[in-house]
Write a structure and sequence with these properties.
Oligomer: single chain
Number of helices: 6
Largest sheet: 7 strands, antiparallel
Strand content: 25-35%
Radius of gyration: 19 Å
Order of helices and strands: HEEHEHEHEEEEEHEEH
Low-confidence stretches: 26-32
Shape: globular
Strand order of the largest sheet: 2-3-4-11-7-6-5
Length: about 250
């Protein structure tokens, strides 16, 4: 568990970095006007994911409200063909949710994922940085184990658990770290004249939880959800991440 001292040190580092960023923006207001992106807005289509049917998800009112107009957004839900889901909630819990967000000229387009997750009622129960191999290339992603309670229409409170994978894709590099993304933004701007249009991919898969499950059964279901999300990242990241082979759409 993080001690009060460690928390204070991390807060101090974050505050120092934020102050440095503000100072550099003031000193170099017009640096790196030409932006560069390392991600394209492309995900597998309706029948591209084996055993699943893909559906495009609309941009929500909240996303339209909080994100600048030039932010690029693509969201898909892949539902197993054998799923008997009768509504959107059940389909989401059975499927694989994938989204791509690409910042525009306004850097407010992207923020730490904890902000949105907590606003949706999720609690972050665990965090792990995972190494992913695609061919002879490797990159790292963050895996959040997230949990929440859902109030059903009949008054029953149900526990929900999911894995949420995300990382940041810049013009020349990717990182699972929010801290590194900010640091690279400043250093690339100052010394390489690069204004990163950061991409933010995320993949989310729910664990199948049923009343009366033992601890071992819950852990096994959690493991399957994690591997399902990770397999999607491995297989389809090359479709949208340029460093893995993605090319700009015509």
């Amino acid at each position: 568990m993080m001690t009060t001292k460690h928390a204070a040190v991390r807060s101090g580092v974050a505050l120092l970095l934020a102050s440095l960023t503000i100072a550099l923006c003031v000193c170099f207001p017009n640096a790196a006007e030409n932006s560069a992106a390392g991600m394209i807005l492309k995900l597998p289509g309706r029948d591209a994911v084996s055993g699943h049917v893909g559906f495009t998800r609309p941009v929500t009112k909240e996303e339209k409200k909080w994100l600048p107009e030039d932010t690029g957004i693509l969201k898909m839900l892949y539902v197993p063909r054998e799923s008997k889901a009768s509504n959107e909630t059940e389909a989401t819990e059975a499927g694989i949710s994938a989204s791509l967000i690409l910042s525009g000229t306004d850097r407010r387009s992207l923020h730490r994922p904890e902000v949105c997750l907590r606003a949706q009622g999720w609690r972050i129960a665990g965090k792990e940085v995972v190494d992913v191999s695609v061919g002879d290339q490797k990159f790292r992603v963050t895996d959040f184990t997230i949990v929440r309670k859902l109030n059903e229409k009949d008054g029953v409170i149900r526990n929900i658990r999911a894995h949420y994978f995300y990382w940041w894709i810049g013009a020349k590099r990717s990182t699972p770290s929010d801290f590194e993304r900010i640091l690279f933004t400043v250093l690339d701007n100052m010394f390489k004249n690069i204004n990163n249009r950061w991409g933010y991919p995320s993949v989310m898969v729910y664990a199948e939880l049923e009343e009366g499950m033992t601890l071992e059964e819950i852990q096994e279901s959690d493991k399957k959800a994690r591997e399902r999300a990770l397999n999607f990242v491995r297989q389809y990241a090359p479709m949208f991440q340029k460093s893995l082979g993605a090319t700009d759409a015509e």
